[in-house]
Specification:
The chain is α+β, with helices and mostly antiparallel strands. It folds into 2 domains: about 250 residues, BirA Bifunctional Protein, domain 2, CATH 3.30.930; about 90 residues, 3-Layer(aba) Sandwich (Rossmann fold), CATH 3.40.50. It contains 15 helices and 16 strands. The strands form 3 sheets. An 8-stranded mixed beta sheet has the order 1-5-6-11-10-9-7-8, with helices on both faces. A 5-stranded mixed beta sheet has the order 13-12-14-15-16, sandwiched between helices. Strands 2-4-3 form a 3-stranded antiparallel beta sheet. Helix 1 packs antiparallel against helix 5 and helix 5 runs parallel beside helix 9. The model has no long low-confidence stretch (mean pLDDT about 90).
Length: about 425
């Protein structure tokens, strides 16, 4: 019989057996952020829709096709967050973070939403981890953030990655490049895909971000942006490259890399595993020196990156990377008859208060069935209470690995289990 309800299309349930992957990624990312001096920020899952339209860009696929937009009961147009940077910039402005020592280094972790065709590596609800460094235009900060991203994947165990790097200039040099790009496309746009024909007038830089196969030859022959950089942007890009080389981080120059969001300036990058495909990027980011001003703040330089946790985990599984197991229950508390249930409950409570993970048998099952359950939850010990144990204030302590057991005083159970756990480590 099929279930009446299922998870919505484009969403997945993260079951207990999947949690070791998620815990491994979360712990690694959090530890690295602390090493690099980044502090956690959590922003609302929904915001005013205009925040994303203005920040991400009216002509982007995210705003035009993918945002979950709704009108609340107060008549305001709201949107589930499709990405994290605009939210963080809004918080930076709202809470006066410009008054803090700059740059302000922030990281976040949480769900994001885009209405898209579900496929491998792309869901309608996905989990974003990202970092933003706001308030400084030094290319050393770009290198720092790229190194953080690079080390994250290294320490997670993802190998053979490629760092794709480019500069998309700024308001000084971009108009000259866009004129050259439109000239390149002028006699080819008629055979381009419908999206590119729309982009030609509305947002020509995103012509280079098209993933349609028929448009790739035109993109491959497009003029490289680095040939049109102004002196300041060219110097910024050269300094960034020298920092990366000093850090020992290999990179590949990709003159057609522009990313899919309108707010990027100067540095843009993607980190890709070796397999082919449009959805193979595990993490990406860039500089967005004009975004905070666009959202109503003072001119403030910034850079950030984000990574999809689902894609990271897919790569860990694809390459058979072992992840630490979540700790097993230390002890399963069982009882031989109903009269011992109260004492078993008290013992389990005392163990938990002492910081020892304990699972108690419930449901009135036989002792044999309880022992099967102890095996099923992979407990290290079973603490068994029966008539004799109640009379003598003792507990049968069984080591589940080999079945060896002994009767011990109740007051000694906690100490003996703690000793056994130390030895097991």
């Amino acid at each position: 019989m099929s279930p009446r309800y299922r998870a919505p299309r484009g969403t997945v349930d993260i079951l207990p057996e999947e949690q070791p992957y998620w815990e491994h990624v979360y712990q690694t990312a959090t530890r690295l952020c602390q090493v690099y001096g980044y502090s956690r920020i959590d922003t609302p899952i929904f915001e005013e829709a205009g925040l994303f339209a203005r920040g991400v860009g009216q002509t982007t696929d995210i705003v035009q096709k993918e945002m979950y937009v709704f009108q609340d009961r107060g008549g305001e147009m709201m949107a589930l967050r499709p990405e994290g940077t605009a939210n963080v910039c809004r918080a930076y402005i709202q809470h006066g973070m410009r008054n803090l020592p700059q740059p302000v280094r922030l990281y976040y972790w949480g769900p994001a939403f885009r209405y898209d065709r579900p496929q491998a590596g792309r869901q309608r609800q996905f989990t974003h981890f990202g970092c933003e460094a706001i308030g400084e235009n030094d290319p050393a900060l770009d290198a720092e953030l790229i190194e953080l991203a690079w080390r994250l994947y290294q320490e997670l165990g993802i190998a053979d990655l490629t760092l794709q790097l480019n500069s998309v200039g700024d308001a000084n040099c971009r108009p000259r490049y866009l004129a050259a790009l439109k000239a390149h496309y002028q006699d080819k746009i008629g055979s381009a895909c419908p999206d590119c024909r729309a982009r030609f007038d509305k947002n020509p830089l995103r012509l280079l971000d098209c993933k349609v196969d028929s448009c790739q030859p035109v993109i491959a022959s497009a003029p490289p942006f680095v040939d049109y950089l102004c002196e300041e942007c060219a110097q910024h890009f050269q300094e960034l490259r020298s920092y990366l080389e000093a850090m020992g981080i290999p990179y590949t120059l990709n003159p057609r890399l522009v990313r899919g969001l309108d707010y990027y300036t100067r540095t843009v990058f993607e980190i890709q595993p070796p397999e082919e495909g449009a959805q193979n990027t595990v993490g990406a980011g860039g500089r967005y020196d004009g975004l905070i001003e666009e959202l109503g703040g003072r001119p403030t330089p910034a850079i950030g990156f984000a990574t999809g946790i689902e894609r990271i985990i897919a790569n860990l599984k694809r390459t058979s990377v072992a992840v630490p197991a979540i700790a097993k229950p230390a002890v399963f508390v069982a009882y031989q008859m109903s009269a011992a249930r109260s004492a078993a409950s008290r013992l389990a409570s005392e163990l938990r208060r002492a910081g020892i993970a304990a699972v108690m048998a419930v449901g009135g099952r036989s002792l044999k069935a309880q022992m099967r359950q102890a095996n099923a939850v992979d407990a290290l010990y079973a603490a068994i209470l029966g008539e004799e144990e109640l009379a003598t204030d003792t507990v049968i302590l069984r080591r589940m690995e080999d079945g060896q057991q002994e009767r011990v005083a109740t007051k000694d159970v906690r100490r003996l289990i703690a000793k056994g756990l130390r030895q097991a480590r």
